[in-house]
Amino acid sequence: MGENTKKITLPISEAEVRKLKAGDTVSITGVVYTARDMAHKYIIEGLLAKGSLPMDVKGQAIYYTGSTPAIPGQIIGSCGPGSGYRMDPYAPFLIEQGLRIMIGKGPINKTVIEAMKKHGAVYLAAIGGTGAIIARTVKKAEVVAYENLGPDAILRLEVENFTSIVAIDSNGNNLYAEAISKFGQ
Amino acid sequence: MREISTNLVTNAVERLCIRAASDLPFNVEELIQKSIQTEESPLAKEILGKILENAEYARNNNLPICQDTGIACLFVEIGQELTITGGVLSEAINEGVRRGYKKAYLRKSVAKDPLFDRSNTEDNTPAIISYTSVPGDRMHIKLLPKGGGSENCGAVKMLRPADGIDGVKEFLLQSVIEAGGKPCPPIIIGIGIGATLNHSALLAKRALCRPLGSHNNNPNYAKLEQEILDEINRTGIGPQGLGGRTTALAVQIEYRPTHIACLPVAVDINCHANRYKEVTI
């Protein structure tokens, strides 16, 4: 989208992530991991119990999606974003571990935003309900952990030109919070 | 008495599940198209354009519009002069859901137990089925595959009769503002007013299955629908909650007589992917 799209490749450094500003459109190329409710629960339980994670999140992105099964011959099914707020109880732990980007839809809470400001991370909004066209940007998909969770298993996705919007940046600028004051009548 | 076999029902439900996932009712796209013209925010316009592109691509390629292909909600009207043979009707409906979700590679999104065992039932059953009996010898089935993101934004409130129209509006507006960007705006809003706690919620869900843009036959409620829609679109929430004029595409109210001491109001929010299909057997 937009002519001012910023291209980013993953993994990304703190300095690079801090350059992203709320309202920017970004196009991502590289590896993103999928994880949602139950996968986050397992990740954090593992982290607190053993101090380890099923994948290295340093400089990485987690995409909150649970795709439809791939039709034979396809890489992945529809894979649009899920709600970010459901991961609020877990996200700060991963940000502390070096996670730089979360991709979801809809607002997230203050605790997560404070962690983003402190450690340097952004929350990107992909467009909810556009999973069919988002699937075209996924070039490879493989299960990393928790296959038993079916659509909520952790996948490693290789994406090219995955487009999303910086909804909340590492200074806490927040398009969701600004919407009503800016556009309300 | 007319007789039909449960096989017929299973096949019909299977087809509804498959079609609903990738074939958005056209009037959703018409309403989005219209809203692009009045939208002020350039970002909102782009988002609405992507939503239209996705709906068309999904339909043309038989792909799910959204990865959340929903929990299957069905409204079944059974004519009193109809006999169903060959098994239990609810089982036949669930078998149709099972087959449709498997055959079309739709996501299975049902957890076995809400609290103690959230593992996946792996076939998207059980469906949520609501039956009513009607005159005649036909069966009418409506399917609304409901996504979790928008479902989580619904609410019911037992208002006092004294709260009246203003109380109803205030509750609805608060619910939509609180939902913000969570239910994937632009949203469609189903509202149930009256009846009882449980039934108002059922009316709200059923309201989502009404042809979009249609108004309640009662002019009082039709006017209320328009007023609520206008107020919601003045909030500024906008597409995806990122700001703009287009927060809701339609507000649809269903109402029923209620207890003399009660004023139940239920709001059921759906995302722009307001998928539903229906069939008469």
What does this structure look like?
The complex is a heterodimer of chains A (185) and B (281). Helix content of chain A is 26%, strand content 26%. With 185 residues, chain A is of the alpha/beta class. Chain A has a single domain (6-183), classed as fumarase (Alpha-Beta Barrel). In chain A, strands 2-3-4-5-7 form a five-stranded mixed barrel. In chain A, helix 4 (110-119) links the parallel strand 4 and strand 5. Chain A starts with 5 loop residues before the first strand and ends with a helix. The model of chain A has no long low-confidence stretch (mean pLDDT 96). With 281 residues, chain B is an alpha/beta fold. Chain B contains eight helices and ten strands. In chain B, the strands form three sheets. Chain B has a four-stranded mixed β-sheet with strand order 4-2-5-10. The two termini of chain B are 14 Å apart.
Question: What labels would you give this structure?
Answer:
heterodimer; A: 185 residues; alpha/beta; fumarase; five-stranded mixed beta barrel; 26% helix; B: 281 residues; 60s Ribosomal Protein L30, Chain: A; 2 domains; 8 helices; globular
End-to-end separation of chain B:
14 Å
Proportion of helical residues of chain B? 25-40%
Order of strands across the widest beta sheet of chain A? 2-3-4-5-7
The helical percent of chain A reads: 25-40%
Strand fraction band of chain B? 15-25%
Radius of gyration of chain A, in Å, reads 15 Å
Task: List the total number of helices of chain A.
Answer: 6
The CATH class of the largest domain in chain B is: Alpha Beta
The strand line-up of the biggest sheet of chain B is: 4-2-5-10
Low-confidence stretches of chain A: none
Named at the architecture level, the CATH assignment of the largest domain in chain B is: 2-Layer Sandwich
User: What is the approximate shape of chain B?
Assistant: globular
Radius of gyration of chain B: 19 Å
Low-confidence stretches of chain B: none
Helices of chain B, by number, come to: 8
